[in-house]
Fold this sequence. Notes:
Low-confidence stretches of chain C: none
Largest sheet of chain A: none
Order of helices and strands of chain A: HHHHHHHHHH
Mean pLDDT of chain C: 83
Number of strands of chain A: 0
Oligomer: heterotrimer
Low-confidence stretches of chain A: none
Structural class of chain A: mainly alpha
Order of helices and strands of chain C: EEEHEEHHHEHEEE
Strand order of the largest sheet of chain C: 5-6-7-3-8-9
Shape of chain C: globular
CATH superfamily of chain C: P-loop containing nucleotide triphosphate hydrolases
Mean pLDDT of chain A: 88
Helix content of chain A: over 70%
Largest sheet of chain C: 6 strands, mixed
Strand content of chain C: 25-35%
Distance between the termini of chain A: 29 Å
Radius of gyration of chain A: 17 Å
CATH architecture of chain C: 3-Layer(aba) Sandwich
Structural class of chain C: alpha/beta
Number of strands of chain C: 9
Radius of gyration of chain C: 16 Å
Largest interface: A-B, 29 and 32 residues
Amino acid sequence: MAAVSFTAILVLLESLVVGPSLARQPQLASALLWIAVLFAALLAATRSFDRELEDDALDAVIALPGGKDALFAGKTLALALLLGIVALLGTILSIGLLDLAVALPGHLLLVAVLGVAALAPVVVLVVALTVRLRARAILVPVLALPMLVPQLVASTQGSSAALAGDATGSLGWSGLLFAFALVYAVLGLTIVPAAIE
Amino acid sequence: MTTTTLTPSLTMRVRPWLAVASLAAAGIATFMALVWAPPDATQGDVYRVMFVHVPSAWLAYLAFVIVFLASVGWLWTKSAWFDSVAVASAEIGVMFTGLTLVLGSIWAKPTWGVWWTWEPRLVTTAVMFSMYVGYLLLRGLSSDFGRRATRAAVLGIIAVVNVPIVHLSVLWMNALHQLPTVLRPSGGPTLDGRMLATLLSGVAAFTLIYLYCMATRVEIEQARRARALASARP
Amino acid sequence: MPAMEASARLDDVSVVLDDRPVLRGVDLDVRPGLTVVRGANGSGKTTLLRALAGLLPIASGTRTVSGEVLILGHRPQLLRGLSARENLSFFARFRGGDAGGVGDALARWGLAADADRPVERLSAGQRRRAALARIDQERCGLVLLDEPFAELDRDASELLEKALARLGDDGRAVVVATHGHESLDAAAHVRTLDGGTLR
Lengths: 197, 234, 199
């Protein structure tokens, strides 16, 4: 809920500050949306281990056989679902606020789904690396933002291509996003659990 | 844990020789770069920045590949030596990535007319720089040895995987959108034999300096670790 | 239910936390039955249990553990927002067991009436009881308990002592770290931690 309202406010503010006529351009509209989603992801992720950190329940979970992998997979899935909702509502809001013409709605949806799937594992991975560190609030964005450059580029370009009616472009970027999601999910399930302590 | 006791003595024996060798190589490379190599036909003397820029970029990438290998080594063996290598190489790598960016800017202004351009290689290097600054921050902010080493190792591996992915995505973006690209001298300055030799001597000198810095930094890290462990034994 | 056999050994184990040695050259062979680890505050009891459970990186030495391990820390470690029943079911199912006996286990620990309240609404003692009920539900071969008597009233203490006896009869290995409850010592291997060294 907090993540959704945060994104909505951000989309509103960004569009206002940039100026509606500029913000209507596909490239800019999708950049603004994905930046908002990215911030929502960081916001949600830093809080995502709160339940486990309370009362040291994290210890109980990682002491279970396979607990660390399940923790990564579960958190990634949960964050992806949350971000899916955020991205969906953010997109609807952008379209409404900026009176965007969507040339290829199906492609736009595909990019949104894959973009969220590519974003979530990286964010969870960074949160897992910094869990229980006091400086987590600052470390998460510092580590995650440079790492998310490819995801941000690909989802922005893909959405903008879908808005503008470039089917090949949006499919190409979707493929790339799918590859990113796969690479980071594999990394997350192979080496990251070693670092959850 | 035999490596922890063997390696310091080995590096200690090698280090003075590395110091002498890197000083000599740096002296020779400096002479070649400033005096021996001829001026470039189009760029004049400005191109000589290349003789430090290219070797320092080479070192940046080399250093991060070493971080990656050492990270794998730590996760595999849990031998503290690998962690010392990783932190040493990361620090040196960050320094040389920064140097590469600064030197690149200095070279870009007179040749391309701008300090910065959104060309994939530049963007990748800048992103890489911030990623490894983050790596050092993560190390600095986690206090416990074993956890710090494991967390850093995982990040060290992910960062190396990330670098080509960043490069690829920026490359694609530029290819599709033809972002304003700056006029570049086609293929860079054509290297004649003396220029190439100078460049190679620069690379050799920088590599020797890297090895010297590594030997020193690893030794420091090992000494710290040995002190902590010594007090752990009854 | 998973096999209940388990064994655990630490050989010359040292643990360094925050560049400070916490365990120094610890040898420990955990056998079926009860092992009590005594020691003053800060002597390394918690670290020893966590090292046994594999939750800590070991600076030197070797840890050999086979079988499933259940560790209960000095906090109840229950997931906030879920009830005691949901917590126990979650942990049991995660281990591949079924959650059929959860109600009975909670009732045995006196929580029948409060099994469905979110754990954060329970008192500290009730939370502790709920955590201890995991011993009965998950049936792991190696059970590590860190100051399990903290926050327990007399009733619950007696329940725990009975449970420890029951575990010993089942041939399960139990390690209890505590600075009190000398009554346990009669039927147990007793080891003492002093400044990170185990005697």
